[in-house]
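Data deposition worksheet. Section B asks for the primary sequence of the deposited chain exactly as it was used as input, without tags or linkers unless they were present during the calculation. Section C holds the resulting structure in token form. Section D is free text for depositor observations; keep each observation to a single sentence. Incomplete worksheets are returned to the depositor.
Section A, Depositor: J.P.
Section B:
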Amino acid sequence: MSLMVRKMAVADRAAVAELICVSTNFWYQIHGGTPIFSAEENADVFFDTYERLDPGCGLVVENPKTGRLSGSCFYHLRPTHVSLGIMNVHPNHVGRGVARAILERILQIADARTQPVRLVSSTENLDSYSLYNRAGFVPRAVYQDMLLSVPASGFSQRVPSNQLIREAVTSDLPGIAALDQRLCGIRRDPDYALFLDNAQGFWRLMVALDGPGNLCGWMASSGHRGCNMIGPGAAEDEDTALALLAAHLIYHAGRTPIILVPATAKKMTQTLYRWGAQNSELHFQQVRGVFSEIKGVHMPTFLPESA
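Section C:
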């Protein structure tokens, strides 16, 4: 089959959601796991979020004979890097070069901008790992996917902290961007604005301030049924990250959000175990090109996948 890679269009919304749902669930089910998405409409959050955040930054592979989609991927153009979003290939088209064709197109875009490319991928999917590794990506960090069931009565754990934890306001955005660049070597200004604006109705953005009032951490969370997560975020240290995490969990009563915690963050992982969290998977942060060593705590997410 000849591969036709083209830009994702608004008319592709339903087909892309179906592709994300079918391909993701299929992979987990054949590897002994449970479906990630309970319904196709839960997967439309990716198209809706990315069309708002990065309009026109999506690619699909279309069968020129049938018009059916065999693959899709989003990408994110940021001041410091290009980020690779969720990559999906229909189970009937695995092994036919679909993902490679999409990846090559995105790498061309990044190379034209002379920027590194970043992504977060499952350590269990060796086909995916091989695709990116062959293309020059290098694993830089490991994250534990930790699931925490919050009682319907609410989150009752408290984290002793000297920081002031509060909802973010517009004047915080420059400080969030500066902290992100200092700790993680990246900027993703459109993401912070998306969280704060919350036009979609399921985002929350909080910041941590130290004694003198300096911003020392930030964290967002998503309450969407298709992607209930705490993060992304960055903090000076684990205590600050835990204080922000606890503040977010208050708003997730009766839910089981997923949290990507750096595997090296011993205090965070041990605290989450005490709270009842369980590991569900491991993910690599992979980077093609220049990488700045992470200072403090960096927490990526699956939505938006811009770090």
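Section D:
Residues 4-115 form a domain with the Aminopeptidase fold (CATH 3.40.630.30).
Residues 29 and 73 are 21 Å apart (CA to CA).
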